[in-house]
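Go through this chain for my students:
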Amino acid sequence: MSAGSFERRLQWARAQDDADPLAALRSAFAIPRGADGRPQLYFCGHSLGLAPLGARALVDAEIEDWERQAVGGHEHARTPWIGYAEELQPALAELAGAQPHEVVAMNSLSVNLHLLLASFYRPGAERRSILIERGAFSSDRHVVAAQIRWHGLDPERELIELAPRALEDVLRTEDIEACIADAGPGLALVLWPGVQYRTGQWFDLERVARAAHAVGAVVGFDLAHAIGNVPLALHAHDADFAAWCSYKYLNAGPGAIGGAFVHERHLRRRDLPRLAGWWGHERASRFEMRPQFEPAPGAAAWAVSNPPIFSAAPLRASLPLFAQAGMGALRRKSVALTAYLASLLTELASDELTIITPAEPAQRGCQLSLRLRAGAQRGAQLIRALSDSAVICDWREPEILRLAPVPLYNRFEDVLRGAWRLCELLRAPC
């Protein structure tokens, strides 16, 4: 790791950045700065995406309309509040691989999962179980366990958790299919991540959906770490439902409005129960306050409350950037950035860490998860030292470091500098 070696690599990285057709997108984001005023090397978009510079003006505009018009803003704001969520549908549908009427911007991820499971988890005398991955994000496990209990059932009996094979970190698709087939007529629902939050594994959602439907189960996807990160095709892959948050790769800010998908084959089903609210009522007669619920056409029928305008406004700053870039171009850059990070870490630090994210690009998004061989105590020291060096990533107990070079705002030079600093710190004495 000589200075000369770094300089040669830096020349190469800068040449890649100079040739990058998406390079200008970086200037659309606020890059955090350290105590010395220099930009940080930010690799934490899997946890919280950076702020689009256009977000402040859009939030300010909504506050100004509230100040000037008060209740009149529902109909006369620059972007009328009554139709605010509908304005987001086309761009979200493009990222989800769905038709616009199949998506809705609403609530937060866990709330949306509860609302969707209230419709799609309907346990019977035999078909009762829910399948998730072992080590699922805690909120997902809490949601499904609570739904099982809500129906008077026992999660210890009805919650199936599939773990990787011994001495492996990620799940094989054939093992997921086999588990679904084994559960057979007892399986009511599969809730699966698009990208697993801890390992960064991107699953073959089409095969998961096909396997679930083959045994008569419903399938839903948690896309918190997938939407805006990898190409999705929810409609074509025949998902029954899905939900996501918008504060990670969609860059809509902390607590931003989430979203949901319901396949169009379910949209006109009168036999499908839902936890209804007035904002899910069809728009033309919503304000007539009728006692009978008339569901809005499309996934919007699952909305229960009017959208939080101030937490939805930043999404209007972020989504046009995806349209400007195109998901295909973003994915090509993402594959190149992550492969570069993986190659640097493998070359420079293979004795100190193991990359547990799949090596095959088709099985990962932009995130790499690294197992630190020195263990948790050394990891806590390392994450503090990285932060002090203006390299922002995160740690998952007991031994996993996560970094995500996001193609909207990260550069090859960022990847080189971040990986180089990480490797320097790994070699430093404890």
About this structure: Residues 93 and 100 are 5 Å apart (CA to CA). The chain has a mean pLDDT of 96. Residues 3-30+326-427 form a domain with the Aspartate Aminotransferase, domain 1 fold (CATH 3.90.1150.10).
